[in-house]
Design a protein that fits this description.
Blueprint: H1 3-25, E1 28-33, E2 52-59, E3 65-72, E4 76-78, E5 84-87, E6 94-108, E7 117-125, E8 133-137, E9 144-150, E10 156-164, E11 180-181, E12 185-188, E13 191-194, E14 203-207, E15 213-217, E16 220-233, E17 236-240, E18 245-247, E19 253-255, E20 264-269, E21 272-294, E22 300-303, E23 306-309
Antiparallel strand pairs: 1-2, 1-10, 2-3, 3-6, 4-5, 5-21, 6-7, 7-8, 8-9, 9-10, 11-21, 12-13, 14-15, 14-22, 16-17, 16-21, 18-19, 20-21, 22-23
């Protein structure tokens, strides 16, 4: 190949790569979730009733993109005052891959008094959906909005408020917000200790990627309030937050909220790992003070017998 053609090919390739990088950088993620829906909502009379809706994905600068619509049919339980406590996860949520298309921007009167506000309208499309749905949002970042369910005459028959998910990983903050409530037992060289009683300088047993246990001092304790999940396995149950990374039996790591009934997570007993099968996952909708451990490096420790990831230390 002549030198000038070779140089031209290099320049064209570089320009294409640059254009692809710019296009990728111009997409922005979003993650919206409903409150527990009581009464439930149906998209079609033949469909099951859904108690929770989550829409997450990415859109470009034009407002077009793709994502996943998760429809959860599991209903909550309540205390004597009508406060939702948890969702019984007996049925698998329905997950649909959807296309998101920007329709138009318009003005709407939120309530009497203030001037009309500018909102943005999107269509959400999936071939499996028998009902037309859309999204109305007060900003192009999609930090909140309303899921719109249309009837046969293209009139809106249901409006479901959506807000940014507290468990959002868009963009992700490592192990945030997390991770374990008071009473969680952490394995130390001298036995088990409640996580809320640990402090910087306390020594616990950690497991690095090679699986070798070693004592390591805690550098810091991360504390925050957040909703939690109760995970039941064939070895018992434990409580954690949705984003807490857990070690799977296949060697990978995933957030607690992404677990399914087909998964098995690892326990640490008598110096070896044991798989524990997931039996159920229950969401508890009550703000709980939760804790995680920070070491000099990201590692794993043992909480209630399960291998869990620590919160990464801040960058140096």
């Amino acid at each position: 190949m002549p030198p000038h053609l070779h140089r031209s090919l290099i320049i064209i390739t570089a320009l294409l790569c640059c254009a692809a990088s710019i296009a990728s950088a111009q997409t922005r993620p979003f993650d919206l979730r409903s409150e527990i829906l009581t009464p439930s909502v149906k998209f079609d009379p033949r469909d099951p009733a859904f108690h929770e809706i989550r829409l997450r994905g990415q859109i470009d600068v034009n407002g077009d993109g793709q994502g996943t619509l998760t429809l959860d049919p599991n209903g909550p339980t309540f205390d004597d005052f009508g406060t939702g406590l948890m969702v019984r996860s007996t049925q698998q949520p329905l997950k649909l891959e959807v296309a998101i298309q920007f329709v138009r921007t318009g003005r709407t009167q939120i309530q009497a008094g203030p001037p009309p506000e500018q909102w943005h309208l999107y269509r959400i499309k999936n071939d499996q959906l028998k009902t037309s749905i859309g999204l109305a949002a007060p900003n192009r970042q999609l930090t909140s909005g309303r899921l719109l369910v249309y009837g046969p005459d293209n009139n809106i028959v249901s409006v479901i408020p959506l807000n940014r998910s507290f468990a959002s990983d868009t963009p992700p903050l490592p192990c945030h917000p997390g991770c374990f409530p008071a009473g969680t037992l952490v394995t130390t060289p001298s036995g088990s200790e409640r996580i809320e009683n640990l402090a910087p300088g306390s020594v616990v047993i950690t497991l690095d990627d090679d699986g070798a246990p070693q004592p390591r001092p805690i550098r810091n304790i991360f504390v925050v309030d957040n909703d939690v999940l109760k995970i039941q396995t064939d070895f018992g149950s434990f409580v954690t937050t949705e984003t807490q990374p857990l070690r799977l039996a296949n060697g990978t790591t995933t957030g607690a909220g992404a677990l399914s009934h087909a998964d098995a997570i690892l326990r640490w007993e008598s110096g070896k790992t044991i798989p524990a099968k997931i039996l159920s996952i229950q969401k508890q909708y009550r703000a709980t003070r939760v804790h995680n451990l920070v070491f000099d490096q990201t590692t794993h420790f043992i909480a209630n017998g399960y291998i869990v990831r620590s919160k990464p230390p801040p960058p140096k």
